[in-house]
């Protein structure tokens, strides 16, 4: 947090200086025509100066996508999306598009920032106030890059990695989530514009937590983000994605793809806090978040841990998964999904046990308030070779009020006699007794609710990196505002 | 001695059913009053009306606390003004550690009173002043509030909260229920330690037994939503002897 705040400050002072000297930011205004076709994909690829193999890969994805249908099995409802009624390549937003100052920003958004204790400069950044000339500045990441480079870690935009480390990108891109995987992932493969690339070399423990937060020059990676993280043998990295503060975002559809590759003894901890615009109390507006995230534990004794706190978006469709291929590999999924008002979330995980003695843990906490619907959907599969495989699943739902819904849809497929699978599920309602008890001790409605829900989510929140966890706790309370009393 | 609580002609209903049918009760500063009565006489309702619970509606009469109309205050404002309710059945808050809960409560009250919040060190120091005498160990403080607590542990935890929140007026609703004699002594000692010239209490109980340990200044018998009789501590002994029958009939006749 402090780093980002300082940077934003530093950077905005530089921007101010430049302005004083009559510096004019060179804003690209180029926009591909509306709609989606092969030409658009060629345009994107050319803009990014991509090698031919990548263009061909995109085109194959596009051809495949044309034959696919939008999935309809999730328990979410939304109007049909017109995929031709969108821009698939837009250069960074010009200053004129953004608010000129915080005075022009939605006061609701500012109130939330205040509650989260976000410093002013950072608020400007998050709200998209026109200081973006600065975000192109390389200086933001320089300090970190130096330290990372010393360790041999590569952390850069994926478009840059395509140029600087084409062999790694070509080897691993689409190796976990193939271009033909599913409707949204396939669309992403055809049109992705940017995202993160991380490579941790053999035996390296990444010296800092990597965060998209640090990458503020890439803040506007758009709706089709593509992330690829490779943890080589014996390496470790903790990656944080997202931000506890709600981001100003005009794209309604987000279809990101995240691929994680783990070789022998590697470990990746991937934490997400997703707090995009959920729409208003009547369900108007809000982001559709249709994400494909998957980790391949290819090496023996590798371990991947997904932790997610999902409080935003109007519709969430997301199943961070683990393919446990290497013997003794471990997959973990810790999830908190909060829905309020008219939000819908269909989220969970897939644990595919392939190797021997693989184990997985799923802790999913769903909180529904208002008229929202929350579904846990998860698959645990033991392949014939998953000798001694183990899974423990715990799904807990908490209901606030009597107009919301919580659903649990576990799929269990066991093809190995020696494997053990445990599944526990509970549903509870916050009782008036609990709220009264807390209020009698001096807590307000909101404080009481926040504390009870945080208690309910504790097992998951404690998996988050410390700084994130504190903010996430506040976020939990804020997300549920107006749901009692 | 001025009265901290003044209840006049109080009628209250729950779900449209009148439970309290004209209660008059004055409690002086520093006094301990006991309310006894059979099941369904309105004892718990009275405690909820005083603490402001939703669904307990006053239809007539008044309650003033420290000279102020209590009905103007929310539940948490009443708590901040020093009203404490020791619950007959304390609820469980899974995942919320007792320490976190206690600290949050103490600071919520301090904030409302315009006092500085306690930091972790200051808070722990205060907590330690009370835990030993109430026989509360670290394990209890780490666990979720009341989760897996025995009956005695729950009641001791209530008294610990009272000690930390330092109320001016505490209602203890059947604090003796579910306690064996040893546990009862610990709880009663805890309550007695908190008696003082600036703290008043209203002890609600079925049985005279509790009043051997927490000796009240006054005893009231509640029956059919009214106070049927008031007296000194000897009234409890009379009740024990004669049973509620005589008083209940008397209230109906009145």
Q: What features would you describe in this structure?
A:
The complex is a heterodimer of chains A (485) and B (254). Chain A is α/β, with parallel strands linked by helices and 485 residues long. Chain A is 28% helix and 28% strand. Chain A has a domain at 146-479. Chain A has helices at residues 2-20, 38-47, 52-66, 107-116, 120-127, 139-151, 158-164, 166-172, 183-191, 432-440, 445-461, 466-479, and strands spanning 154-157, 196-200, 210-211, 226-231, 236-242, 253-254, 257-262, 267-274, 288-297, 303-310, 315-318, 321-324, 330-339, 344-347, 350-353, 359-368, 373-382, 390-399, 405-414, 420-429. In chain A, the strands form two sheets. Chain A has an eight-stranded parallel sheet with strand order 3-5-8-10-13-16-18-20, with helices on one face. Chain A is globular and about 65 Å long. The two termini of chain A are 33 Å apart. Residues 1-29, 130-140 and 213-221 of chain A have low confidence and may be disordered. Chain B contains ten helices and twelve strands. The mean pLDDT of chain B is 91. In chain B, helix 7 links the parallel strand 9 (169-173) and strand 10. Chains A and B meet through helix 10 and helix 11 of A and helix 2, strand 7 and helix 3 of B.
Question: Features of this protein?
Answer:
heterodimer, A: 485 residues, alpha/beta, 6-stranded parallel barrel, 20 strands, B: 254 residues, Rossmann fold, 6-stranded mixed β-sheet, 4-stranded antiparallel β-sheet, 10 helices, globular
Could you give a short description of this structure?
Chain A contains 12 helices and 20 strands. Chain A is an alpha/beta fold and 485 residues long. Chain A has a domain at 146-479.
């Amino acid at each position: 947090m402090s780093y980002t705040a300082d940077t934003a400050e530093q950077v905005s002072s530089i921007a101010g200086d430049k302005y004083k000297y009559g510096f004019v930011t060179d804003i690209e205004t180029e926009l591909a025509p509306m709609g989606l076709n092969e030409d658009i994909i060629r345009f994107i690829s050319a803009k990014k100066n991509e090698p031919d193999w990548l263009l061909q890969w995109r085109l194959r994805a596009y051809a495949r996508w044309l034959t696919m249908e939008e999935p309809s099995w999730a328990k979410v409802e939304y109007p049909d999306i017109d995929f031709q009624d969108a821009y698939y390549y837009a250069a960074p937003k010009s200053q004129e598009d953004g608010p000129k100052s915080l005075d022009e920003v939605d006061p609701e958004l500012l109130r939330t920032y205040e509650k989260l204790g976000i410093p002013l400069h950072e608020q400007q950044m998050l709200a998209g106030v026109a200081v973006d000339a600065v975000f192109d500045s390389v200086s933001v990441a320089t300090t970190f890059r130096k330290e990372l480079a010393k360790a041999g870690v590569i952390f850069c935009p994926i478009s840059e990695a395509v140029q600087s480390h084409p062999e790694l990108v070509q080897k691993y891109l689409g190796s976990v989530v193939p271009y033909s995987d599913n409707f949204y992932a396939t669309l992403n493969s055809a049109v992705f514009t940017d995202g993160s690339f991380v490579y941790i070399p053999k035996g390296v423990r990444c010296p800092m937590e990597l965060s998209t937060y640090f990458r503020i020059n890439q803040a506007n990676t758009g709706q089709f983000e593509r992330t690829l993280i490779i943890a080589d043998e014996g390496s470790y990295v903790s990656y944080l994605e997202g931000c506890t503060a709600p981001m100003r975002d005009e794209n309604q559809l987000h279809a990101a793809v995240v691929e994680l590759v783990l070789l022998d003894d590697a470990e990746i901890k991937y934490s997400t806090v997703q707090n995009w615009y959920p729409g208003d109390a009547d369900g108007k507006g809000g982001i559709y978040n249709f994400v494909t995230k998957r980790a391949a534990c290819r090496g023996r004794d590798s371990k991947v841990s997904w932790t997610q706190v999902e409080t935003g978006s109007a519709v969430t469709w997301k199943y961070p998964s683990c393919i446990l291929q290497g013997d003794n590999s471990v997959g973990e999924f810790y999830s908190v999904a909060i829905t309020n008002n008219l939000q819908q979330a269909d989220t969970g995980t897939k644990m595919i046990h392939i190797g021997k003695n693989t184990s997985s843990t799923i802790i999913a906490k769903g909180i529904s308030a208002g008229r929202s619907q929350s579904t846990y959907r998860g698959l645990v599969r033991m392949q014939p070779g998953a000798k001694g495989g183990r899974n423990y699943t715990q799904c807990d739902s908490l209901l606030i009020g009597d107009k919301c819904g919580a659903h649990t849809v576990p799929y269990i497929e066991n093809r190995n006699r020696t494997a053990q699978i445990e599944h526990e599920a509970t549903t509870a309602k916050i009782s008036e007794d609990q709220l009264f008890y807390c209020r009698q001790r001096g807590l307000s409605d909101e404080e009481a609710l926040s504390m009870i829900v945080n208690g309910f989510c504790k097992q998951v929140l404690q998996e988050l990196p410390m700084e994130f966890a504190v903010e996430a706790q506040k976020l939990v309370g804020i997300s549920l505002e107006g749901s009692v009393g | 001695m001025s009265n901290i609580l003044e209840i006049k002609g109080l009628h209250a209903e729950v779900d449209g059913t009148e439970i309290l049918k004209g209660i008059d009760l004055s409690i002086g500063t520093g006094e301990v009053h006991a309310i006894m009565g059979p099941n369904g006489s309105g004892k718990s309702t009275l405690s909820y009306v005083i603490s402001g619970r939703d669904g307990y509606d006053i239809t007539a009469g008044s309650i003033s606390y420290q000279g102020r109309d209590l009905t103007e205050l929310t539940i948490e404002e009443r708590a901040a003004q020093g009203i404490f309710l020791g619950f007959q059945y304390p609820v469980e808050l899974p995942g919320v550690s007792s320490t976190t809960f206690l600290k949050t409560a103490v600071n919520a009250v301090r904030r409302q009173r315009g006092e500085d919040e306690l930091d972790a060190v200051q808070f722990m120091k205060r907590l330690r002043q009370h835990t030993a005498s109430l026989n509360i160990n670290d394990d209890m403080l780490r666990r979720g509030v009341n989760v897996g607590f025995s009956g005695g542990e729950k009641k001791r935890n209530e008294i610990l909260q009272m000690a930390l929140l330092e109320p001016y007026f505490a209602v203890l609703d059947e604090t003796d229920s579910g306690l064996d004699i040893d546990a009862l002594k610990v709880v009663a000692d805890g309550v007695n330690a908190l008696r003082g010239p600036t703290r008043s209490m209203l002890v609600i109980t079925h049985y005279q037994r509790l009043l051997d340990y927490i000796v009240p200044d006054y005893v009231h018998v509640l029956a059919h939503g009214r106070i049927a009789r008031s007296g000194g501590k000897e009234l409890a002994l009379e009740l024990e002897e004669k049973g509620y029958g005589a008083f209940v009939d008397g209230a109906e006749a009145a």
